[in-house]
Amino acid sequence: MTVLPALLAALLLVTPAQAIQAAPASAAEQERPEGGTPLTVAVTPEPDGGQVSLEATLFLPPEGTAGADDDGRYAAVMLAHGFGGSQDDLFAQARELAAEGFVVLTWTARGFGGSGGRIHLNAPDYEVDDVSRLLDLLAARPEVRLDAAGDPRVGIAGGSYGGAIALLAAGSDDRVDALVPAITWHDLAQSLVPQSVVGSTAGDAAPQSPAAVDPVATAGVFKKRWASLFFASGLGSSQGGDAEAAAEGGSCGRFDPTVCRAFLRAATTGVADEATLELLRASSPAAVLDRVEAPTLLVQGAQDSLFGLDQADATARALAAAGTPVAVRWIDGGHDAAADTSFAEDLLDPSLAWFDHYLRGGPDPGAAFDFTLPVTGLDDGPPERRRAGEYPLAATDGAGADIDSAVVEREALDLAGGTQTLVAPPGGEPAALTSLPGTGPLLQATGRAGAGYPLAALPGESAVFESQALAEPFTVVGSPRVRLAVTSSVADAVLFASLWVVSADGTATLPRQLVAPMRLEGLTPGEPREVEVALPASAYRVQEGQRLRLVVSTTDAAYALPADPRLYRVGLADGAPDALVLPSVPSERVEAAGRLVPPALLGVVAALLLLALVSALVARRRRRAPVPAPGLEDVPLVVEGLVKAYRNGFRAVDGVSWRAERGQVVGLLGPNGAGKTTTMRMLVGLIRADAGTVHVHGEPVVAGSPVLRRVGALIEGPGFLPHLSGRENLHAYWAATGRPEHEAGFEEALEVADLGVAVEKPVRSYSQGMRQRLGIAQAMLGRPEVLLLDEPTNGLDPPQIRAMRGVLARYAAAGRTVVVSSHLLAEVEQTCSHVVVMHRGRVVLTGEVAELLEGSQTTLIGVEGGREEALRAALLLGALEGSDRLEEVDVDPDGRVRVRGRVPRPRLVTALVGGRVAVSSVDGRRHLEEVFMGLVGEDRPAQVADVGQPDSQPTSRSEKPGGAR
Asked: Does the entry feature the keyword Ubl conjugation, yes or no (predicted)?
């Protein structure tokens, strides 16, 4: 299973500080997932004196997990969640990381979710100080390894907002020992108000790092769309405004009023004033990087118009200049990537290796610079992973001597195109459209008829300069530079530059949909100014015969634009040759087996590559396999006395016993937190039970059991390589099992997936429902005798759910066994033949669905006239003479009269008709919801407690041989 998969893709935030206290264990434990101890952390009050506390959760390694020091203490990792999210987003990753031998702390940041306070944008006195209080918490825990009294051995991982807090915290608290910040900023002012005009001139030496920008002091162009999305996500986390928010017109939500006012000023004027810029700089790692000593792995997304590669470049240069170990990876993702894209293969291995080395003394992961070349739409083949030496840095040792860093190679190209006149329309409308921030790569369509180029290069608003066709391929790695001469009709200018790849037939593609905004001030109208512009940093290949096209536009819909009309003249500086300079870094291709995703972690390829994963676990733990159980050879699945408890005493699974027979579709039913998924994971050996056994056809299940070849499973969602097609993912999964291809049944599985032509498309383009169907098909490969599906209908629409019911029924009818975990009562009722109901970790009922619902002692009577008439009918029946077998009469919420007891139904109807009650229906069949709520509903706590005692048996409504028990 994955350890830091969604971690760095879903991470985005951080938290508060002052006094620390643990919440009473009973207060929130049952609302937490398995393995976590809930905590309440009191932190710095708000400026108005309002007290603030954060919700947090501590995850400990299971007993006996490797990685502890001689005192039994473990290194710790803090996980910061995403802007607008909460710690709930990180629970699955925290559990997996704890299983790898780390103490893990998650928390919901100040101003978000259930934590108090307001959002200050990682302010030093609030969010940054909060992290120090969390470090105090870890230092006081007996499970955490210490470097000194009060100094825990700890790393921090976070992405975007959380990546910034990781760097800021390390710059203010030297107790942080390792960092993995991802897709985050160096300077928030430059990120939200970017300036692409650089200070160097043609005579200056080119930067040694590939993605350096180093802009001039003039503030750039406000990213109005990204800023609006950023602000809106903070409002979305609001749990209600307060008086101060109301004073701001009720539009501030949980933002600190100072932050709110700064945004509103910039959004209204389209310009970030100096006060706003200073606020953004105060929330930027740039201010503290000279004090960061923690070795840092920077992971930055190449597909990111919010925080570009230049931000990671600037951070890397600053850290290296301070003598801090630093490594850089550019991943094929970022804030503009498709929402369902998984970056696990880019993050899992290097992040684990980094923490293992710098927190526990494991092997040195090195500092290789990795990056991905995307498919541009003009060439064929999958994205290509490249690896260079250490990231090229213009760093010194403080005495002016170069630190060991590679040299960036550069290629100069001539561009054709004379000086051109451009119009900037009033208010910037119509505006060029190069990207839609926050919506994924929706504008990646290419070609003259596509949405990309015609919308980005509007006639009259854009100037075009083009190179000759390249005589040989060239790989761009970093930020190209171009020298322009700009003339304006007014004293300033706002322009946007982009670099397109053009094929021989004229098809144009903009790599990563990135543009370089520039603002010039202090111009003399009518007189040209020469400037050097840093184009967006990226990594992509330009093939032989392709050309590069520079487009300079007066508008871009993602930015705030001048309201007044103006004219510009744009040409190449000096009309000079070699105006465009392309950077590259010598690198080698990393093959598919290039250890970015090591074989022991092929859970990234598919969440349940059971054989590879459990074999590794067996080798590591050296446990002896239990002896097969006699007499169970013909029973597909037998669960006896399963227990899973955690150090805080919480039992996620408590004495669970049941069995599933051939031909059954068994529903494992229960509310969220009942222990269903934990049970499912124990069924396949992904986690070890503290007590009890699982047998498949008489053979015990532990990690690595050969009998798992007879089990297919989809647990906690599917996992795929995003750049492979659906068909290729299935073949890759099956190849990892080592079994003959003819046993797989690919075509049968593809029929289940029902993807049509999409089966040949990359999985990264799939919807959630398509990925879910492919995951179920993957679990069915090899026609396993026992099929385990955890919430299989997630993401499916009603027709697909109906079709899946038929698939599962036919699969079981062929003599196999299906177990479906779900909290959807109606779906279990229609899909399953048998049911096992869990509540608070225990089995409270098992039986055959048809028998459970038949209810021979219950009669449901519908009457005309509404609820008042139903109440009158209940009184009539309750007063029946001689009804000693009548146990209870009441009225359902839906208005039906419910009669419990063995009174003949004709007599009930006769009594009502005689009382002049109009009877509309008589039914003896209940719904599963009725049965379920009678056991686990909040109105029946006593019954739940009674059936859950250790010395009692689960309620059973089926004594037939072969029933689920």
From this structure: no
Percentage of the chain modeled with pLDDT above 90: 39
Q: Which helix or strand (DSSP H or E) is residue 553 part of?
A: strand 547-553
| DSSP class of 584 | E
Q: Strand, coil or helix: what is 474?
A: strand
Over its C-alpha atoms, the chain yields an Rg (Å, rounded) of 32
Rounded to whole angstroms, how far apart are CA atoms 945 and 814? 39
User: Quick one: 148 exposed, middle or buried, by C-beta within 10 A (0-12, 13-18, 19+)?
Assistant: exposed
Contacts of 439 (CB under 8 A, 6+ apart): none
Strand partners, 839: 842
Q: What is the DSSP string of 237-295?
A: T-S---HHHHHTTT--TTB-HHHHHHHHHHHHHSS--HHHHHHHHHT-GGGTGGG--S-
409-413/580-584 β-pairing: antiparallel
- What three-state secondary structure class fits 651? strand
Q: Domain 5-193+284-390 sits in which CATH superfamily? A: Alpha/Beta hydrolase fold, catalytic domain (3.40.50.1820)
Q: Give me the torsion for CA of 307, 309, 314, 316, rounded to 10°.
A: 120
Query: CA-CA distances (angstroms) from residue 266 to 189, 275, 427, 432, 754?
Result: 12, 11, 16, 21, 49
pLDDT class of 940 with cuts at 50, 70, 90: very low
CB-based contacts of 676, cutoff 8 Å, min separation 6: 668, 669, 670, 790, 821, 822, 823, 838
Task: State the amino acid at position 745 in one-letter form.
Answer: G
Beta strands 786-790 and 817-822, pairing class = parallel
Tell me the pairing of strands 711-714 and 665-669. unpaired
Cα separation of 709 and 705, whole Å?
A: 8
End-to-end, the C-alpha distance of the chain in Å comes to: 30
Pick the CATH number of 852-956 from 1.20.1070.10, 3.30.70.100, 1.10.3720.10, 2.60.40.1080: 3.30.70.100
- Which one-letter amino acid corresponds to residue 493? A
Coil, strand or helix at 539: strand
Fold of 599-848: Rossmann fold (3.40.50)
C-beta separation of 956 from 658 below 8 A: no
Distance in angstroms (rounded) separating the CA atoms of residues 253 and 351: 35
Q: Which two tokens stand for residue 24?
A: 């009473």
Q: Of 528, 500, 525, 502, which is closest to residue 514 (Cα–Cα)?
A: 500
Instruction: Report how far residue 165's alpha carbon sits from residue 156's, in angstroms, rounded to the nearest whole number.
Output: 9
Cα distance between residue 226 and residue 243, in whole Å: 27
Contact 477, 587 (CB under 8 A): yes
Q: For residues 740 and 53, which has the higher predicted lDDT (pLDDT)?
A: 53
Residue 543 CA: distances (Å) to CA of 453, 549, 585, 589: 19, 14, 16, 16
- Which CATH number is 411-442+451-588's, of 3.40.50.720, 2.60.120.260, 3.30.300.30, 3.40.50.1480? 2.60.120.260
836-852 per-residue burial string, b: 16 or more CB within 10 A, e: under 16 = bbbbbbbbbbbbbbeeb
Q: What is the mean pLDDT of residues 511-529?
A: 94
**Could you read off the pLDDT of 690-737 as tens digits, one per residue?**
889 999 988 898 877 788 889 988 887 777 877 788 898 898 888 777
For residue 487, what are its two tokens?
A: 């003339």
Residue 67 makes CB contacts below 8 A (sequence gap 6+) with: 61, 74, 75, 100, 101, 102, 360
pLDDT of 594-615, one tens digit each? 333 333 233 333 333 333 333 3
Enumerate the CATH 3.30.70.100 domain ranges in the chain, comma separated.
852-956
Hey, what amino acid is at 59? F
Domain with CATH 3.40.50.1820 in the chain: 5-193+284-390
As a whole number of angstroms, the distance between CA 207 and CA 906 comes to 93
* Contact indicator for 826, 864 with CB cutoff of 8 Å: no
